[in-house]
Amino acid sequence: MSILAASSTTATFVAPHVEFGKLSPMLIAFGTATLGILVEAFAPRKQRYGIQVGLALVGIAASFAAVLALAGTTASVVAQGSVAVDGTTLFLQGTILVISFVAFLVIAERKTDQNQDAFAAQGASVPGSAAERETTRRGWQTTEVYPLLMFSVGGMLLFPAANDLLTMFVALEALSLPLYLVCGLARHRRLLSQEAALKYFLLGAFSSAFFLYGAAMLYGYAGSVNLAVIAQHVAHPTAGSTLLYTGVALLGMGLLFKVGAAPFHMWTPDVYQGAPTPVTGFMAAATKIAAFGALVRVLDVGLGVNSAENVWRPVMQAVAIITMIVGGVLALTQRDIKRMLAYSAILNAGYLLIGVTSTTAQARAAVLFYLPVYGVAIIGAFAVVTLVRDAGGEATDLSRWAGLGRRAPIPAALLAVFLLAFAGIPFTSIFIGKFAIFQAALAAGSPDLVIVAVLASALAAFFYLRVVVVMFFSDPLPQGPTIAHPSIAVKTALAVAAFATVALGVAPSLLLHLANNSAGILAK
Amino acid sequence: MGNTGHGETFLFWVGSIISILGALGLIFSKKIVHAALCLCTVMLCLAFFYMAQGAVFLGVVQIVVYTGAVMMLFLFVLMLIGIESQDSLVETIRGQRWLAVPFVLAFGFVLIGVYAHANLPEFVGTDAANAKGGGNVQSLALLLFSRYFWAFEVSSAVLITSATGAMVLTHRERTVPRKSQREISIERFERWGKGEKVSLTGLPNPGVYAQHNAVDTPALLPDGSPSEASVNATLRGRDTVRGFRPLPLPGARRNGAAVASRGDAGNEEVSQ
Amino acid sequence: MNPDNYLYLSAILFTLGALGVLIRRNAIVVFMCIELMLNAANLAFVTFSRMHGALDGQVIAFFTMVVAAAEVVVGLAIIISVFRTRRSASVDDANLLKY
């Protein structure tokens, strides 16, 4: 605070230096969202859908271009120490933007459901009421969803880049609040969707209260919420370390909630099931990437000292083991495809946590590789779920999927690709990702974790294959669900996801190389 | 600055007892409005604590934003969705409710133990920091618009999100234009013409000829009996209609035969 | 009195808030308990700010209030929308929920 110390009586205000270039990916995302709000206010209702979708996609692409332009610049801490722009940040931001682009293509889909998107015609009208029928008949749409989700994307870009706990908290809320809202806007089964939103909101707010109290304790410990300053105090302690570790534990509860790790996973299956399916795909992929980025930054920058690592590593290892067991075992019992994918997301969070607990550069690169390949595959899987429809929306019960492979070979084959990738079949991207993480964990000296992970993978292979068997080797139902014919946008998204899943399994070296190059650099 | 002055010590002990009682009230009170008022009390106590600790601006903001805006919003929503809505809206946490109690209490003891063993440094006090900028508000502003400008910018995104979100979830646009008074009136006469039982003149106001003119006080008919139609149906449904007491006739004894002769409804709650 | 008593108070309030979240079943009360937890965190920030003799803690508490206010708006909007749907919950909706 050299500015303030300048004079003894009154300090003069010096305008802070703003690094617009380095902040540009986030500024573009937030700017696009704000423009979207203005479009809502001024554009006529009929044109809003087109403008909003176009604006969002252009915004994401522009933001991605900004990330590309920043690639290779020196790692630095900008915005007065609030934001760290380094290799890891840029890699994760780029990943989040690619994932968001694919997810927005699926979210904007209208062809699968009688020229309506997945969101209620008017969020405030009561389901089944005359007002709802009238708004649906007129073809109204909740186009506010697009700017809201853009705000969420902006928060996600900031979350893994946040270099102090206050910025991280604000970013956490910026990414969560739009998701809470959008969760409750499903067109079909709205009561379920709204209860999912309520559950997500209450548990999310509960966990962010823990995050905040943890941040308060760390502030008490270090006198600052800046991660670098906390790291200095950890290396040269001035106060008792009880405050530090309790603070980190509470902070970790908030982050592990967003990651979806057990025992903070309770919300995942219910919210994934209740939310509109395209949004579920977006949440499952992008939120997880952002949250893992933030978790890695807190642990590596704030607590990257040996004495601290010895304390948090066993705890995180325990969390990883519990997460894998919960995800693997409970997925077996699911009858609903969305819930099954939710438990699969929990299981994958467990694998990623193994990568987080090993603090080597190799493990960091493995985590960075795993995040995009997992994200693309899970968006693809949820996109296939949107295509299988009944009268009341998507047919998500597994028994309804019997014989789907014969009636609709292409969607079924695509889903099979994603599920086989999740199951860790060789020549798929996730196989390479798992392999990299396990290898790093072995090199870092934790074979016990790898054993649990391999057992969980075997268990998981069973329930993924069960879906494939149901689709391809059982007789079709006489009145089975219909398969919607998607628009070119969803076809593109599915093709990209399937291509990435296979191509990165066969030729992973480019992305692995990029992850390796990005992982080591952390601005402090 | 190791110890606080006597004034602050007194404030702390009184305030902390009140705020803990308030927090207990929030958890255990049966009625939601009581819970909300208990939370208001806690927030007011915290505002005084902030001021006592040199955070004058924050104390004021606490009163204006939290007790003033946030809690009023809570009460407003309570009124909107009905104070008697006791039904559970959350089904997240089943069964393990009471299992949670020992865990949370243990957690609380851990937190207290952490502070007890934290070896906290001496309290410096905020006087010097406040003086740097020439006052608490100025010093905060210096920090807010320089060191923390990025968080400030991003919080605007959070605020826009919440405003938009509230509109999306609660604002209903009309699909048909609102009926004018003239149209309603014509409709009413048409229904009356078809033989339906409609009141052509509109319903009577509450409180006419009664002791109060509050909305929950029914109007009295010429024979002294209360008129059900004068009270809003919601209030009738909630059984919160006020009882009435007819004015005594001139020359009659108070509480005497004159009142009793006016009918059984005399001093009884109308709704019962 | 040592000022760190404020920290003990904040710990107690935070615990009581967490207890309320877990034992109450009404969404609005649960939400108010979460607000109590955020307030307890703010008290800790302000007290630590006094301990360190720097105003950063107060700025953070200020941001918490702003963000919490936004959170309240979103939360209450969700609660209202659930309530509206529930109040009219009829056989049709039960069908929607059938899996």
UniProtKB/TrEMBL annotation, chain A:
Q: A single Pfam family, by name?
A: Proton_antipo_M
Q: Which residue ranges does UniProt annotate as crossing the membrane?
A: 26-43, 55-78, 90-108, 145-162, 168-188, 200-222, 242-267, 279-299, 311-333, 340-361, 367-388, 409-437, 449-473, 494-515
Q: Which UniProt keywords apply?
A: Cell membrane, Membrane, NAD, Oxidoreductase, Quinone, Translocase, Transmembrane, Transmembrane helix, Transport
Q: What does this protein do?
A: NDH-1 shuttles electrons from NADH, via FMN and iron-sulfur (Fe-S) centers, to quinones in the respiratory chain. The immediate electron acceptor for the enzyme in this species is believed to be a menaquinone. Couples the redox reaction to proton translocation (for every two electrons transferred, four hydrogen ions are translocated across the cytoplasmic membrane), and thus conserves the redox energy in a proton gradient.
Q: Does the keyword Transport apply?
A: yes
Q: Which gene holds the coding sequence for this protein?
A: nuoN
Identify the domain of life.
Bacteria
Q: Which reaction does it catalyse?
A: a quinone + NADH + 5 H(+)(in) = a quinol + NAD(+) + 4 H(+)(out)
User: Could you describe the subunit structure of this protein?
Assistant: NDH-1 is composed of 14 different subunits. Subunits NuoA, H, J, K, L, M, N constitute the membrane sector of the complex.
Q: State the compartments where it is located.
A: Cell membrane; Endomembrane system; Membrane
Q: Which family does it belong to?
A: Belongs to the complex I subunit 2 family.
Q: Which organism is it from?
A: Actinospica acidithermotolerans
Q: Does the keyword Transport apply?
A: yes
For the biological process aspect of GO, one term held by this record is: ATP synthesis coupled electron transport
The protein depicted here goes by the name NADH-quinone oxidoreductase subunit N
- Which PANTHER family does the record match to this protein? NADH DEHYDROGENASE
Q: What is its EC number?
A: 7.1.1.-
Automatic annotation (TrEMBL), chain B:
The top EC class, named as a word, is translocase
Listed GO MF terms = NADH dehydrogenase (ubiquinone) activity; oxidoreductase activity; quinone binding
Instruction: Cite the entry's keywords alphabetically.
Output: Cell membrane, Membrane, NAD, Oxidoreductase, Quinone, Transmembrane, Transmembrane helix
The catalysed reaction is:
a quinone + NADH + 5 H(+)(in) = a quinol + NAD(+) + 4 H(+)(out)
Question: What residues form the membrane-spanning segments?
Answer: 12-29, 36-57, 63-83, 95-116, 148-169
Matching entries from Pfam families are given as: Oxidored_q3 (PF00499)
Question: Which cellular component appears as one GO term in the record?
Answer: plasma membrane
Q: Map out region (Disordered) in residue numbers.
A: 217-272
- According to its UniProt entry, what is the function of this protein? NDH-1 shuttles electrons from NADH, via FMN and iron-sulfur (Fe-S) centers, to quinones in the respiratory chain. Couples the redox reaction to proton translocation (for every two electrons transferred, four hydrogen ions are translocated across the cytoplasmic membrane), and thus conserves the redox energy in a proton gradient.
UniProt xrefs under PANTHER family: NADH-QUINONE OXIDOREDUCTASE SUBUNIT J, NADH-UBIQUINONE OXIDOREDUCTASE CHAIN 6
**Under which name does UniProt file this protein?**
NADH-quinone oxidoreductase subunit J
What is the predominant subcellular site recorded for this chain?
membrane
List the subcellular locations: Cell membrane
* InterPro entries in alphabetical order: NADH_UbQ/plastoQ_OxRdtase_su6, Nuo/plastoQ_OxRdtase_6_NuoJ
Superkingdom of this protein's organism: Bacteria
Q: How does the record classify its membrane topology?
A: Multi-pass membrane protein
Is NAD found in the keyword set?
A: yes
Say which family it is in: Belongs to the complex I subunit 6 family.
EC number(s) of the enzyme? Answer: 7.1.1.-
Which species does the entry assign this protein to?
Answer: Actinospica acidithermotolerans
UniProtKB/TrEMBL annotation, chain C:
Instruction: Specify whether Repeat is a keyword of the entry.
Output: no
GO BP annotation list = ATP synthesis coupled electron transport
> A Pfam family for this UniProt protein?
Oxidored_q2
Which keywords label this protein?
A: Cell membrane, Membrane, NAD, Oxidoreductase, Quinone, Translocase, Transmembrane, Transmembrane helix, Transport
The subcellular location is: Cell membrane; Membrane
The UniProt transmembrane annotation reads 6-23, 28-48, 60-83
EC numbers listed for it are: 7.1.1.-
Q: What class of enzyme is it?
A: translocase
How does the UniProt record describe the way this protein sits in the membrane? Answer: Multi-pass membrane protein
Q: Which family does this protein fall into?
A: Belongs to the complex I subunit 4L family.
Its quaternary organisation is: NDH-1 is composed of 14 different subunits. Subunits NuoA, H, J, K, L, M, N constitute the membrane sector of the complex.
Question: What name does the UniProt record give this protein?
Answer: NADH-quinone oxidoreductase subunit K
Species the sequence originates in: Actinospica acidithermotolerans
Taxonomic classification: Bacteria, Bacillati, Actinomycetota, Actinomycetes, Catenulisporales
